[in-house]
């Protein structure tokens, strides 16, 4: 006689095992999903091998909380981390100012925190560099009296904060790069970085004690690329350690602008991407067809239903579009390599 209880086991056994297997599989998939995507808003993404730090990537490591001063007729803004290991002077480009490197806050109400500048400062602070920024007096840096003024400010600031024993390094972009190349003949830097600038090496006397120089440039700027190649040979022939980092163009994506810009919502970022594609500002792969400065994207936004919660966002977006086209713009994308360059030449 067939046993009813055995019949139940014969049918329920495999069924129960299948249900258990299904539950375990769903659980594992869920856990993997959580591990992959948990807190992704703070993790850097990658585009064409570039480390694309998100605007809040350093949130758990450091907060921007600078001190603001006014000396010798110009703004001086800085922040010193606990146990600093070096001092970094940052020189902005034309139309820039010290406030661009710092977020607006109670300690710096006039700061603007441009996406690339603030990430450079954050990266340096996270690596225990004291960061000092100074505004040029005119639209761009000048190379006469202003060299002396900035030299005096840096010397005063280092002494005031008892940082004389630390290595001193500098990064200057565009006009700031030209300025730093000349300032390096007046101050003892352990090393310097010239960003989107070939320097003033046809106007200065290069000696063996000139600091190691890293050029961070964009090869699409053919004139500057040629001059940098020429000056790298000149520096090498004078016993100066020299390296270069080439910054290439990269494609936009629906969420890239939101990832890079504080205060820009993901939905607005996606709408902007769709608008740029519809207007023909980007190609089928997401690459900018023209430099951001020559793209009438602001006019297109005004005609659309896209509304920015803060008008300042337009300046932030402009910087990222310029960077994506990669001809001439401040960039934080190689901050890790730049900091390692500084660290490798400390003395």
Automatic annotation (TrEMBL):
Residues that span the membrane, as ranges: 18-37
The protein's UniProt keywords, in alphabetical order, are:
Hydrolase, Membrane, Transmembrane, Transmembrane helix
Gene3D superfamilies annotated for this entry?
Answer: alpha/beta hydrolase
Tell me one GO molecular function of this protein: hydrolase activity
The reply to whether Protease figures as a keyword in the UniProt entry is: no
Name of this protein = Putative alpha/Beta hydrolase
What organism does the UniProt record list as the source? Rosa chinensis
